[in-house]
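Q: I'm writing up a methods section and want to include an example of the input and output format. Could you take the sequence below and give the corresponding predicted structure tokens, formatted cleanly so I can copy it straight into the document?
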Amino acid sequence: MSNKRWVFFIPVILGIIVIVLLKQNSPEPKQNPAQEMTKAVRILSLPQLSVTPIAIGYGTVRPVSTWEAIAQVEGIILEKNSKFAKGAIIKKGSILFQIDPVDYELNITQIKSDILATQAQMEELDTKLENTQASLAIEKKSLELIKNELTRLKKLLKKSSVSHSDFEAQERNMLTQQQSVLSQSNSLKLIPSQKALLDAQLQQKQSQLKRAQRDLQNT
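A: Here is the clean output for your methods example:
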């Protein structure tokens, strides 16, 4: 029984061996390169044209952004940009209106005149300061001399070498001189505050001048 089984499998085994040997010795199949499929087409030559796109629609048109212009200065308009119109496109930086600069030029001239006047007052005040200081020194020296003379007359009055009227007259001179010294001292004390006021006015005028010159450039 077992011999019969081997007789049945022998052809099968031989067949498998033959197939393996044939597969090993057979050459590889040739591969043809892939070719692009071509299609027949028709070609038309078109001329180059300038086309203006036109869109037609219905409804309410609203701008993406709006701008409201406010003049920085006031005055009579002398000239308006010819392109300034509703819906017009104007290049950035273009002058839209030209305002009459006469009023601003007159204002600048007046401010400059005020500045010069204030500067002259400050110089006059400096001169007054020097003169007052010199006058005060003189008045103090005169007061010292009058006091010395009054002291001398007082000694003479005790000796009855001088009259009471002469002594009283010298006292009045001393009081008058003391009043003069006090007046000069008060004037000297007021000068710094007067100078500070003029300096503040000068700075204000200079600020007004800069603002007026800027307004003139905007006309």
